[in-house]
Amino acid sequence: MDKSKELKKLNRRMQATLDPIFDDPAKVWVFGEGHAEAALMLIGEAPGKEEVRQGRPFVGQAGKNLDEFLDMLGIEREDIYITNAVKFRPVKVNPETGRVSNRTPSREETALCAGWLFQEIAVIQPRLVVTLGNTPLRVVTDDRKSVIGSMHGRVHSLSIGPQGQPVALFPLYHPASIIYRRELRSVYEEDILELKRIFLG
Predict the structure, then answer these.
(1) Residue ranges of the chain with pLDDT lower than 70?
(2) Can you tell me the distance from the alpha carbon of 50 to that of 32, in angstroms, rounded to the nearest whole number?
(3) Residue 68 CB contacts under 8 Å (≥ 6 apart), including other chains
């Protein structure tokens, strides 16, 4: 199977399916990118303003967080596959200023994209899936009660999707959370070192 071609087909099917649901010409889909044969797959929450502008996941501030993550692991961006649980930017508008900002995806939005994410994982078949934060963790585990605080920094074996595909999952705090909760910095770094030990031996 040519995984690159399969991913392109999957993205086309997803866009063709979701476009009529939203009926919003301004909606921008941000698909995953990276090595189709990657052993490590990274799943974030959803694209932000800069990701939508460039049409790529994990750029802008998120890209800086990713670069630091990869530096600590000692691997290159080109060697992994990167995607998001939700393929479009969930936003909220300040009624007073009209300012548009990011928000956490709703259950409906994550449910809408979950099946496509499962198919994406099935094509890549990574050795290890790393989720960043609660949203992708809950999508992959299909459990709204999953919390990063009790699952981070360890490998969890689970089956996902209708086919029950086996997945080795390593949840991490979202890098952005370190900005707001400085006490998580040391925890995050310890978790990445553990990930490095598991993934690179």
Answers:
(1) 25-26
(2) 15
(3) 175
pLDDT in tens, 163-186: 888 999 999 998 878 777 888 889
Query: Which pLDDT belongs to residue 25?
Result: 67
The 3 state secondary structure assigned to the chain is CCHHHHHHHHHHHHHHHHHHHHCCCCCCCCCCEECCCCCEEEEECCCCHHHHHHCCCCCHHHHHHHHHHHHHHCCCHHHCEEEECCCCCCEEECCCCCCEEECCCCHHHHHHHHHHHHHHHHHHCCCEEEEECHHHHHHHHCCCCCCHHHHCCCCEEEEECCCCEEEEEEEECCCCHHHHCHHHHHHHHHHHHHHHHHHHC
Structural domains of the chain in order of their starting residue, each with its CATH number: 3-200 (3.40.470.10)
**pLDDT value at position 11?**
95
pLDDT at 123: 96
